[in-house]
Amino acid sequence: MPTFSAPDGTRLAYRVHGDGDPVICVPGGSADSTYLGDLGGLAAHRQLTVLDFRGTGRSAIPDDPSTYRCDRLVDDVEALREHLRLASIDLLAHSGSVNVATQYAARHPQRVRKLALIGPSTRAVGIEITGETRREVARLRKDEPWFPEAFAALEALTDGRGGSPEAIAPFFWGRWDAAAQRHHAASRPSNMEAVALFGAEGAFDPPATRAALAGFQAPVLLLTGEYDVNSPPETTAEFARLFANATFIVQSGAGHYPWLDDPAHFVATTTTFLA
CB–CB of 69/62 below 8 Å? Predict the structure, then answer.
């Protein structure tokens, strides 16, 4: 696995899938980036350069834990671009790392050709996702056999009464089958310190980020699943309105991992956008 040096000297690793014009891909949360796989076959159309964020996968643990903060991870993406000697990049981000990609676009707009935001988190731009919005999406699954237990846990979590995050896992996939359960087991965060410090004080400045994005001219794709309680369509649509040149897509029947729920649809959508 190739590596490069971050600005603070931390050794970072990345994986390469496929051939052709590269797309830099950044994984959500602090899970090993392998959960992205080849993004449903996208690597057959574009070369995927998949970053392991510091402290995850094969990337080194930094000497300074404060560098796990979201805004500071932007520097690691820029260091990867420089390492690859690319004048500008197509950047694809999933889930929590959308906050990194969004801040990257705000800080380095001239370096982004196209920006694909999949199942996007909205913390960097200050868009709140209410508990009722999440529950409204969840109710679309009311005929599933696992729904009563999972919905009770979701209600408890969104109402601030506790509840088990593990119990709501079925809501994150379009089909809660054996393949989804294996993927769930493989996509858990691997570094809880990185999870805890990602959103530490100073990680986000929504007014400044929104102001910068108002002038961002590159094409942006915001794609979320019809069933995605993490990134509800209603909220993702609001996010899309912050960009001058946005394409908003809701993938039917998909959850938080649309490349698994319907690979052909996901790949067709993303390759068309990235072409």
Answer: no
